[in-house]
Amino acid sequence: MIWNELEYSLQVKVMDRIVDLLKDEEDDEMQDGLIAAIHELEVWSNTPCQIIGGDEYVASAVEQDPFSEGR
Hints:
Blueprint: H1 8-24, H2 28-43, E1 50-51, E2 59-60
Antiparallel strand pairs: 1-2
Helix pairs in contact: 1-2
């Protein structure tokens, strides 16, 4: 199984679990690694594209803050 084979909802749950680990981590290097992992996973996630205009076939990639609460 690879990351992109997972449903987006499961990807979000996995990333949230990593954030939970990050909150308890005291080692600075491990914190940096967890943050890098979250960022990398979000870049490769199956985030649904935002539909723009009235045409359901036109989509636009939306840049998001990888550490925002509104995933």
